[in-house]
Amino acid sequence: MRSGTSRWPLARIALALLALATLAVTLLGCGSSGAGAAARTQAATSVTGDTVGNPIPAGFVGLSIELKALEQYAGTDPSAVDPVLVHLIQDIAPQQRPVLRLGGDSTDWTWWPVAHVRQPPGVKYALTPTWMHVARSLATQLRARLILGVDLEANSEVVASAEAQAMVNDIGRSSIDALELGNEPELYGAFGWYRSTAGQLVTGRPRGYDETDFTSNFSSFAPHLPSVALAGPSSGAPTFLSQLGAFLTAEPRVRLATVHAYPLKHCRKATVVTIPQLLSDTSSHGLAEQMVPYVAAATRRHAPLRIDEMNAISCGGTRGVSDTFASALWVLDTLFEMARTGVAGVNIHTVPGTINEVLGPEYGNGAWRMRVHPEYYGMIMFAQAAPAGARLLRIASAVPAGVKVWATRAGSTIHVVVINKRLAQSQTMALRIAAARGPAIVEQLRAPSVHATSGVTLGGQTFGAATSTGVLAGSVPAGTLAQSGGAYTVRVPAASATMLTITRP
What we know:
Helix 5 packs across helix 6 (157-171), helix 11 packs parallel to helix 12 (326-341) and helix 12 runs parallel beside helix 13 (374-385). The chain is of the alpha/beta class. The chain contains 13 helices and 23 strands.
């Protein structure tokens, strides 16, 4: 936890974590409300000292923001960038250089105006010097690494080159992780890019435009772009991603492989998407398993693979699912799953004013406020449990259906996270943790119900309806949880998550 403008110094972390434990002891001693109180079960699980996979990369968790939304989030004054946004981004990448992606659908709707060149018909938004200076200021304050979208659908090397060069000149090479040419090119031949004067939808590419066409298209543009790393293919289509290895081989300047991931689709009104679907293992473990061959293909070509656009439900999300506490439990589990596969990082996509909004900016009377939605709380708990350099630990025994257990080790500190995704049954876990002997600090991620869109708490603290500081507010009494019989026994209420933190001597 953090107060004031500090950046999670270790002493403050220790004090804040210590303050969580009496709440944890109280929770362990009380029955849950509703149906969960009548259905208590107990299971024993062992956390070994064996590590799994690679260390968690710095900047693993980040945000993905549309180009046209940057000034909504950060403001239009480069000398006074929204401080609440800065705090909230730092809290999901504490003491790290965060990775911020500026792109999405607006990548191919945006250009940098070029003298004597007509604005492409599909372009709806023009970058300005002010936009560039705001991006530079935000990156500087955060020490961020930016992935910047560059318009490919306009199919103009002049337009792409001018936009990319302006970004390099005005934002600075040191802040640019990669330029991402295009966005979801699998849709170029199928979805309308603009409407003609007759009102007809016009696609950016001919129907049948495929991964081979895209690779050829990309190759013709790459030599005209500034000499910085490129990212791609910025696709979520299995047909395109099945050719990821060939694409990376053909494009040696692509130093970052980028893919998109949404477990559930809601692009047609008739489609029904539910909370049980979101909390099913298919939407977390299943989604991560889809990434395994892509990680392997990228690794063989010495390129990290980043999911630079991810959220629970595509096409804007589903009200009553995307905006509920269920999304916090989903993202917490899914981030661990993605780390397990070897993904280099994940950017959660947020669009202000939509159902999929993770952070909602407000500005008035000279002050910033931010609506913090449930999903963000899950992102914070993951960031606490999996700091840069941490290693996942192997779980040696099976866990009950609907429950996930994750563990990490970072130096002398072990974090164990238990996620109970069942809607009406609490779960008592007896956790035997290798090399752990001292007291555990307990932090819970909770809400009034899995359907809640507000009232979320992390360790008893909350951002409330909107925060003007980016700092979790509220206090909890102090206490600790000791081992009993060689195990830490903790009860996790239905639809909640609990984290134990043990610092080894």
